[in-house]
Each structure stands twice: as structure tokens, then as C-alpha cells.
Design brief:
This protein has about 160 residues and is mostly helical. Helix content is about 45%, strand content about 5%.
């Protein structure tokens, strides 16, 4: 939509014939299975609060999108099952995308230099991200952070 980002839900507009626009999210699903979800960055919640009747990812096949449009036009609501499961998750990741990238890159005990090379950051920036992760998760080591993130399904 002109003048809006893909992350902003629009209010559904009903035509005189009763048709409703069904928005699509910009990614595979909000937060990509909690990996990218941050406080205040839950597209599904925002869209549903805005009054959207249907919510599904752009990655869905055209026939699925058409079916959802038909359901919503018939007065029903639709939320993609993966979006719904994500919304019901008990715990959201407090970590940024980059912090998660650093954890993933170091999950097998890689050195700071190896992590830096794999995620295209300087070693100092990797150390800063690791320090931030340790503080957010309340753990003492990178390995403990990796285990905590894996247990919670963030990586």
C-alpha cells in the first residue's frame, strides 16, 4: 500500500457487496518461529487488534490465499496455524536478530573470530552481542546462552 510499510496492518475495508481485504504479512510468519520476535514486534497481534479478519503469510500458495479470502468474505475469521501457535507461545525472545545470529553461529563452540567471520561482524561486535545476550538471559557463558535459547525454541 502506498505510504505504508508492509509491517503496518491496515483496517479491513468492507465494500457495499460485503467483501473484505485480507492482509498478508511480509515474512514467512511473524517472528519466524519466535526467532525474530521482539517486544512490540508481533504482527499478528497488531493486525488482529486493528480488526483484520484474516491473517496469513505471503509465502502461502495462491490457492490458499484465495481460500482465505473466500472464508473471510463469508464472515469467518482466519489466522494461519503457525501464526496462531506463535501467538500462544509462553515466552518471546528478548534477543535481537543479530544476537540470535551470533548464538547460532557459535552453538558448536566456535571461537569469537570464527563467529565474526561467519556473520560478517568484527570480533569486538560479536563480543558486545554475546555480552548483551548473557545479560538478557541471566547466564554466565555463551554455551549456557545457547542451551537456554535452544530450550526455548529461539534458535
Amino acid at each position: 500500500m502506498r505510504g505504508r510499510s508492509g509491517r503496518q496492518p491496515h483496517r479491513p475495508k468492507r465494500t457495499p457487496a460485503g467483501f473484505v481485504r485480507t492482509p498478508c504479512t511480509t515474512g514467512a510468519r511473524p517472528g519466524s518461529a519466535r526467532e525474530r520476535q521482539h517486544a512490540g514486534d508481533d504482527q499478528a497481534d497488531r493486525a488482529l487488534q486493528a480488526g483484520v479478519d484474516g491473517f496469513l503469510p505471503k509465502s502461502r500458495h495462491a490457492r490458499d490465499v484465495a481460500e482465505v479470502i473466500r472464508l473471510v468474505a463469508a464472515g469467518r475469521r482466519y489466522v494461519d496455524p503457525e501464526v496462531a501457535a506463535d501467538a500462544l507461545a509462553d515466552e518471546r525472545s528478548p534477543l535481537t536478530d543479530r544476537e540470535l545470529d551470533v548464538l547460532r553461529a557459535g552453538r558448536r563452540g566456535e571461537t569469537t573470530a570464527e563467529i565474526a567471520a561467519s556473520v560478517h561482524l568484527s570480533a569486538g561486535t560479536v563480543r558486545n552481542h554475546v555480552s548483551s545476550v548473557l545479560g538478557k538471559l541471566g547466564v554466565a557463558t555463551r554455551q549456557q546462552a545457547v542451551l537456554a535459547a535452544e530450550e526455548r525454541g529461539w534458535i
